[in-house]
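Problem 3 from the worked examples.
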Amino acid sequence: MAANPSLCSPTATGMDGDDIVTAEVCKEDDVGDGELWEVMVAGYPVLLVRNKKEFSALGSKCPHYDAPLSKGVLKGERLRCPWHGACFNIKTGDIEEYPSLDCLPCFKVTVEDGKVFVTAKKKDLESSLRVKDTRKRCLLNQDTMLLLGGGVAALACAETLRQEGFTGRIIMATKEKHVPYDKSKLSKEMSLKAEDVYLRKPEFLDARGIELWTEKEAVSVDFQKQKVHFMDRSSQKYNQLLIAIGSHSSSLKVPGADLQNVCILQTPEDSSKILELATGKNLVIIGASFIGMEVAAFLSDKAGAISVVEKREFPFQNALGPQVGGVAMKMLQNKGVKFYMKTELCELKGKDGKVTEAVLASGEKLPADVVVVGIGVFPNSAFLKGTSIARDDSGAILVDLRMQTNIPNVFAAGDVVSFPVALLNGDRSSIHHQQVAEAHGHIAALNMLKKEKELHTVPFFWTTMLGKSIRYAVA
């Protein structure tokens, strides 16, 4: 709950140094057990928590998307963010559940004569996050951790390795042009530049001795020799290997699928291109799940006309069910988006090599200056075909709860894997979402370091459309 300003307006009681401030924030009896208060210290918001009569003070915003943690949920010593489910320990501020990569700063709390005081360094108050301490690269340690992929699974793995004391070489090799970025924003905020969605800047990785090889695509792995070969004909040996190369958008298999301006949304460049092509034009979206619906929502006031084609009766039908899907569809219909449900695309027609029309199985023809395809994904594991690594029928790599494959010293994480899900009674599943991929990368790192940890996470999903959020957990 938010604190009453008259009770919690800070009163400076002294400076314990040039950069340290102590402020009275409230009376001891004002805060009930289990309550979350946002108080002010030297003009900065601080989260005050009372748990089992003990006070803790932490950064007030979730480092992920700046959600107000005073609206979060406290259970024991774990505080859960109200927006996307990141969890923090109220005693240490440490991150205990993703999607946030960073921790919360903690501040000293004292109680004197029934008054509650918070003491903090000004520089810590200025930031709502704390980056975990890490070990530095030591050239005497020749062990190499090779991480294939440049997404959140590989990033979480690399950071965890350093946080847990690994001093050897860490290489992230990705076919992407960029440092790891927040892919969830590509369809929600399409006007952002690539740099605006970076999760870490290049200098952050450099400072921690994490090598990032961009535009470096793996084409084969020799598991016996522990060596990866790349598209540019180079190779790299490893002591431990993480395969976290994600998934790729499924492509259309209809006549005209190769026409210009038929797009998938995979990278920041794709997002910018779709926004540019669709502005003021006729946009046809194939598929009404997360990508399709988020793109339709963002472009609803920018494109000339939007048509969504989906073979099921409702958007999100498989993931969220018909009721939620029906509400989402109505929201977009009210913005002028047209839906063509229980039908499929059977052909794209064009002129001068560019798409101009989408023909549906019903015979209906839709004007189409640009087509966005969001009909699912498949794992990026084709380069492993013919090897001894275990994969399922879709190509997903099979791992256990330690993210270990059937090959020694080889782990896999993120969209490319199928893993046992505790809430599905141990049945395997591929779950394509940021929080899950980060948890995979973290657990893989711990087991690469022989720490014998198993995955225990509740998959959490979210989508945002027209200022409204849908959040759900797999339970």
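Problem 4, a separate protein:
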Amino acid sequence: MPLTKMAARSRRHFRPQPRWRRPGAAMAEEAARRAVAELPLLRTAAGPRDRAGWAPRLKEEYRALIQYVENNKRADNDWFRLESNAEGTRWFGKCWYIHELLKYEFAIEFDIPVTYPNTAPEIAIPELDGKTAKMYRGGKICLSDHFKPLWARNVPKFGLAHLMALGLGPWLAVEIPDLVAKGIIQHKEK
């Protein structure tokens, strides 16, 4: 067999594992799956434009968020605070990530899209704007590759708690250690 055919055959059989299939990723995926399984699924398919249906949907959102925060506190994994305006259309708060025993805290904000729940909200972390390639203008984190297709398959069952558990949480777990290692962000005490 010619060397080129042998080299081509060996290249076909050796393919590097994608990041999400590497060792440790399965454990993180299982933890995320467990966290989401404990969250209540939402039933009301209403957004801010539907005045009559928005109030029940907002109650479901709050229940799911409260449940998620309680589950996180029970598991000693409390990592965000979130509050909204009176209409429930603008959300803001803080999230934090602990890396090498140092707490990195960030302000977060997002608006509920007019087409919600068909369209997932876009979470912004303004202080990280322009510091990573996985971010859009205005500090909006990139969720389009992994989270948005998952959201689209689960409309209207997914809500803000699912956005935090499957969107922001994994994004922080990947990006913050990378930004720290590159020296782009530093702990406030340093």
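Solution to problem 4. The beta strands are 80-84, 90-99, 102-111, 135-136, 140-141. The radius of gyration is 19 Å.
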